[in-house]
């Protein structure tokens, strides 16, 4: 289906999207990260733009090209992602939080490369919890329409419904981690206050368009 012929579900709307993983340094050459190719978030950014929105994409490290017409801001860490989101959130109509944000950063990161001593002695990492970007946006006085994503490994329905309530957001999109990581297809389940709706197995680009239509109907 030709991109230019997509229905303009989001004409005159401003949409902010996070995508990809975050990367939390251990030292200048090492770090911890989450599994996320960025494909779903980038597909949603592309679909939102096709639907007529003005789209800002705040992205962790990915190997993907910027979707046509989308403004992209690159970040590495969760703190950088939080700062970029905060500085772009005003006047947004929709915030779609697709990024796989690392829940912890390294509290005792080293400014220099940690050397391997070869004596069987390994360094001990200390962790600090990262800010919850989505929950902080949802808690703003006049928040945009907030959409969360959850990749679970089991009990999707239960975890997704609990997460939607805990973060106080109107819409949460659930999927099963091992069925989506790095893949071009997926199945999505939408959870809102009325219940759940499954978007059946299909390409991430088709699912992204269906999700954009669903979001536009809820604005
Ligand atoms: N999220 C976020 N900032 C974080 C963690 C998560 O904005 N520090 C967002 C994600 O982008 C996603 C949603 O919150 O839209 C759910 O993320 P998830 O990792 O599934 O939820 P958590 O509350 O971190 O719970 P879990 O213990 O299952 O990881
Ligand atoms: Ca998490």
In short, what is this structure?
27% of the residues lie in helices and 30% in strands.
Structural summary, described in words:
The protein has 219 residues and is an alpha/beta fold. It contains six helices and twelve strands. The strands form three sheets. Strands 5-4-1-6-9-10-11-12 form an eight-stranded mixed beta sheet, with helices on both faces. Strands 2-3 form a two-stranded antiparallel ribbon. It has a two-stranded antiparallel ribbon with strand order 7-8. Helix 1 (39-50) crosses helix 6. The mean pLDDT is 96.
Descriptors:
6 helices; 27% helix; 12 strands; alpha/beta; 219 residues; binds calcium ion; binds cytidine-5'-triphosphate; eight-stranded mixed sheet; two-stranded antiparallel sheet
Helix and strand layout, with pairings?
Blueprint: E1 14-19, E2 23-27, E3 30-33, H1 39-50, E4 54-59, E5 71-74, H2 78-88, E6 94-97, E7 104-106, E8 127-129, H3 133-138, E9 145-152, H4 156-167, E10 171-176, H5 177-180, E11 185-192, E12 195-203, H6 204-218
Parallel strand pairs: 1-4, 1-6, 4-5, 6-9, 9-10
Antiparallel strand pairs: 2-3, 7-8, 10-11, 11-12
The chain binds cytidine-5'-triphosphate (CTP) and calcium ion.
Helix content: 25-40%
Write down how many β-strands occur, each being a DSSP E stretch of 2 or more residues.
Answer: 12
Structural class: alpha/beta
- Helices and strands, in order, run as EEEHEEHEEEHEHEHEEH
Form type: globular
Largest sheet: 8 strands, mixed
- The gyration radius over C-alpha positions equals 18 Å
**Would you tell me the overall average pLDDT?**
96
- Low-confidence stretches are none
N-to-C CA distance? 25 Å
Spatial strand arrangement across the major sheet: 5-4-1-6-9-10-11-12
The share of residues in extended strands comes to 25-35%
| Distinct bound molecules | cytidine-5'-triphosphate, calcium ion
Tally of DSSP helical segments: 6
Function: Catalyzes two sequential steps in the biosynthesis of coenzyme A. In the first step cysteine is conjugated to 4'-phosphopantothenate to form 4-phosphopantothenoylcysteine. In the second step the latter compound is decarboxylated to form 4'-phosphopantotheine.
Keywords: Decarboxylase, Flavoprotein, FMN, Ligase, Lyase, Magnesium, Metal-binding, Multifunctional enzyme
Protein name: Coenzyme A biosynthesis bifunctional protein CoaBC
Cofactor: FMN; Mg(2+)
């Amino acid at each position: 289906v030709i991109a230019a012929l997509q229905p303009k579900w989001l004409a005159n709307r401003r949409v902010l999207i996070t995508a990809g993983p975050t990367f939390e340094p251990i030292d200048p050459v090492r770090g911890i990260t989450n599994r996320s190719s960025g494909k779903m978030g980038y597909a949603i950014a592309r679909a939102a733009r096709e639907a007529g929105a003005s789209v800002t994409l705040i992205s962790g490290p990915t190997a993907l090209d910027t979707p046509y017409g989308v403004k992209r801001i690159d970040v590495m860490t969760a703190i950088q992602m939080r700062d970029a989101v905060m500085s772009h959130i005003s006047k947004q109509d929709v915030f779609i939080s697709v990024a796989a944000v690392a829940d912890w950063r390294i509290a005792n990161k080293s400014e220099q490369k940690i050397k391997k001593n070869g004596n069987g002695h390994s360094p001990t990492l200390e962790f600090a919890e990262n800010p919850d970007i989505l929950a902080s946006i949802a808690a703003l006085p006049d928040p945009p329409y907030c959409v969360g994503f959850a990749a679970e490994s089991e009990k999707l329905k239960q975890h997704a419904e609990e997460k939607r309530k805990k973060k106080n957001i109107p819409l949460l999109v659930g999927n099963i981690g091992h069925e989506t990581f790095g893949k071009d297809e997926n199945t999505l389940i939408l959870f809102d206050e009325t219940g759940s709706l499954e978007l059946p197995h299909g390409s991430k680009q088709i699912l992204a368009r269906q999700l954009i239509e669903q979001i536009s109907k809820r604005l």
